[in-house]
Structures
1.
Amino acid sequence: MSGQNGQAPAELLSANNITALFDSVDAFLFDCDGVIWKGDKLIDGVRQTLDVLRSKGKKLIFVTNNSRRSRRQYAHKFHSLGVSVSEDEIFSSSFAAAMYLKVNNFPQENKVYVIGGEGILEELRQAGYTGLGGPEDGEKRVQLKSNCLFEHDKNVGAVVVGLDPHINYYKLHGEMGVEPGHGFSILLSNEKDFLKSVWTNSDKRYNRYGTLCIRENPGCLFIATNRDAVGHLTDLQEWPGAGCMVAAMCASTEKEPIVVGKPSTFMMEILSKKFQIASSRMCMVGDRLDTDILFGQNAGCKTLLVLSGVTTQSTLQDPSNNIQPDYYTNQVSDILELLGQ
């Protein structure tokens, strides 16, 4: 029976269908947060599963929306967790942002303002661009005084917005009338309201600088690494994702960004050219329906949802959900078990 939009319901991965999936693909694309690890903790059985897939000739590629790290930094994290992965096998949204500028001939004399982490800045440097902002602007504050002009660099030709852990969530102020340091208590109707409230009432320095560049610098690009609402930044709980930073910029600039991370297929275009593998011979493995699975579907891949991260089985099977993967399972190591290894 078909679900909404004519999609058949996801099929539970089992001993009856694992061989068909395995034989139909040459490469497995893995999301990282909630799939390979949670925070700095490797999910059980991942290392052994990846080793078996490699031993059977499958290409492994890691496609993450988390822009906090560069490919080099992600390779280091993999190695620190006992998993051997090369930089060439990693496609992060931080890398995608730099590659978008490069393939679109962004002038190298122009600067890029970064609302995000060191990963974006490092990838920009690797691509030959000058990045401003990032973590070092995390402690700067805006003083709103009469006759005070906020200066910004007129040579900024792009603003890249990603996950930024240096945003001050605890010094809330502004439109809700809450004094800095006093905190607040409010009942929010949903997650989007939460993200909006955090950004409406938190430190606006980043937002202001990026907004001025986009609104006042002619032709300035607004690039988002992704629009994930939340993510597993630690092993025990979810945290607000880059989507709340991007939402703030959308509101203040009244513009929509160019999104380079999942579910945009930009990263697929880059990795398909690199590895020369047809997307129809790939399987995207992820924990998010609206990014990982939609990315795979948009690109023409097989799709496998794992329930070890953001998405629960009840969410997957809710009648209102209109994104159905080809298969679903509890976690990556189920592949190993079902293959009889």
Note: The radius of gyration is 21 Å.
2.
Amino acid sequence: MDGGSSVKSQWFALSIGFAFTLSASLYLWTKKSTPDFPNGDATAEIIKLQASLKGALDKCAAERQGRIRAQKALREALSKSSCDKVESTSYPMAPIGVVHSCFSTRNGTPRQPLLVPLAKATLRFDPARVPQASLEGLEGYSHCWIIYVFHLNTDIEKLWKHPSQSKFKAKVRVPRLKGERIGVFATRSPHRPCPIGLTVAKVEAVDRHKVLLSGVDLVDGTPVLDIKPYLPYCDSIHGAIVPDWVKVDNVLAIASVNFSQGFSSSLADCWSLVEKKSLYSSPEEFQSLIRQVLSWDIRSVSQRSRPVKTKGGIGDDDNVENTVCPASKVESVQDEEACEQDSSNVVYHLLLEGLDVSYGVDSDANVVVEKVSLPSRLPSSGEISLAQCGKHSAKTLPRHDLQCRLGR
């Protein structure tokens, strides 16, 4: 009995010691984890800090809402038309690059992209606006969209005026409709309220700040606003419907393109002067370009219906008799008939890579390319310029509907 009581007494003493030690440790831990406030009022200090945090969060939210309201007001102000100052509705956009194309002038520039597969161009980007890294990955696409400006339109200055004074024409002549007029938004005419163009081209190579393209329908010097990759799964629309007149291809088709006996020698004489800067590797490739370009009737509607020669046009020889029918005098059917002549006697001029290509078209739509020469001079004002009529309206032509109003 005495041994058992001794053991119980020892266990009791150990239990009391353990409980005391645990209580002391718990007291000390609580003391360390509780801040020592001057007045011992921890709850009041916590509430004060929470209120300060909430005030800061509310202030940030109010500032964000203020920025959103200011941005919305700015967008609304930009979208409102101003009768006194049209440029106030402009947006901060500027060209990011320039196209250097094989088409020296508007004449001969295809009316649609990819019609001339050999039509080459180099798109050079402005390094200050387009970092080289912006083009990384573009080489993985076969084609790209190009958004550009019709910078050679002769009526651009009118677009800065109030709509009531701009004299903008709602309808344009369409080559496929043989000059019949149709609404501008039903065509791809360059003469639009906003002279912005959209085209697609094949991506041949990407080199630093340059992109080599083919199949282009862009004249040399075209300013570019943006490029985007072509995506077949969403950009190609199966079952798309177009008007019947768009489906007619033979209206602008050429029966054949042939070259005169002296063409090769004339090209060889000029090629040495342009070879180093040319986009083409050989005279034979350049000749293939000429064939592809002239496989479509690049003449304007008025030229096809009333062919005329240029007066001292680009590349004309001095001993060739040139006749001209000033557009300013063509005001009636009688005047138009008086200017008509056999189309087989008409010499047209096409500038490619800075070289003047002389050719003729007979009544059966057969083209004969006569020669290649260096351009002599630009046509003077008031003359019908066969080397300037094309994708854009010619600078040298008066504002008559008989001239190059292309509806493409």
Note: The first helix runs from residue 2 to 33.
3.
Amino acid sequence: MPDVVASHIDDYLCASFEMDKEKATYITAFNPAATSKDAHHVLLFGCTEPGSKENIWNCGEMANSDESSEMKYETGPTCASGSTIIYAWAMDAEKTELPKGVAFKVGGSTSIKYLVLQVHYANIDKFIAGKTDRSGLVLTTSSLPTPKTAGVLLLSTDGEMAPHSLELFEVACKIQQDIIMHPFAFRTHAHKLGLVNSGYRVRGKNDDQEWTEIGRRSPQLPQMFYPIEKDVAIQQGDYVAAACTMLNTNSHIVRIGPTGNDEMCNFYMMYWVDGDQLLNEDVCSSSGPPRYYFGRDRHLNVDKIPEEAFHIPPPPNGPAPGENLQGGHHMMMQHKEQSHKRRFHYESID
């Protein structure tokens, strides 16, 4: 960010960078230049048109509310047209390098004419002290084409959870496009109440349906893209699905939303394809609880969901032995209540 100043916690600020329109650029690595002390998250989008013609603008959902930044910057969406997710960072995650022969293709003849950096600010102490911020990403790029092109599919939900409750946030979409995707990295994202996020390829029907894990990780650990150890090719007719298990320890309802006091259920899947034809629709979303569960989709056989989908995994994708999350008591509650929770949701749905 070019020496920006945020006025409030939960401000979202964006900055745009124009790409070479004549020649494509190939991104092969992302090196964060940010700290969780200042930034809740950093997202990189590809846009056909940025959300503002200004170099910096207020691009959060709170941009038009009374609690947003003091009109220091113009307000607008992240992208005015052609929005594509490229990269996401949070919680002091480390550098991400793409596999050999894989790159994100931007500029040139692609629809990505601009890169837009979005930073969600979690702390404004430095700004109160008169300092500015230069959080961002250092990109490794090349002008040489690669045989494989990278893309990102985001699975996310809306929804809410009752006070003092364990809840499942679930989302699934069918791949309608004629495409073969090879997932190679995944990232989970939630706020304070997330226990575990998991993603799956769902193939087949009825009793022959198979749920194959893409990735599973506690979102309380550094939120970088982690490698997928096996080839889980996804093709036309398959479903992609994700589940977030959360424990609301508060005495009030918590909803999905943009601030640190809200929650988020996100599962990012980074994939490559041969050539450069990526998914046309790169966001899969659901209305979340209490309106949507897997059991309400007649194409999904919930009896085939692996039991570990809702369990916190062992290290490195879960906490080390003795390491506490949310005060240390929720892991016991999660395992104790999970089987009842699944029966309640699925047996009550036709």
Note: Residues 61 and 258 are 7 Å apart (CA to CA).
